[in-house]
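RECORD TYPE: protein structure
NAME: DNA binding domain-containing protein, excisionase family
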Amino acid sequence: MSTPTAPRRKGTFFPPTDATNLDALMDLSKFLDHHDEPAALLGPDGEQIPLPLEVYSTLTQIVEAMRAHRAVVVAPVDQKLSTQEAADYLGISRPTLIKLLESGKIPYETVDGSRHRRVELGDLLDYQSQRTVERRRALQALVAGAEESGLYDVPAEDYHEAIRTARHEIAEERKG
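PREDICTED:
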């Protein structure tokens, strides 16, 4: 049996790639799919200890992510990240993250005696949650506006024609 994939950095765990461990992951996944009551951890000596519901729920989420071939990061919420790590976490460029930090949208602290900044993971999670809420509100407003205007009742061809007409009018104005 091969050894589990080594973490790229502390706290990052990748799904197994070898057949034996993939089969074991699938077996565990099927087991968790059929059991939602609290479980227990069984030691090699047969000693059994109940798992708190929070730990069981976390284990279930980890297995689901790995089953989908996604890596899992386990980190305390108060963990401090470099600006590059924070940008990578949010899926944005480091310069974009710096703009968010300097505008006050994400709190940060500077490392004593240097220009380096550190961002708490919890603050990134808060920012992400806030952005999700804002995006949902914006989408709901767009949908409501489209419904009020009856845009869902208009055939797609009419949109294409309207776009062509608008582009033509803009081109004429630029010539004019």
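COMMENT: The chain has two domains: 12-73, 80-175.
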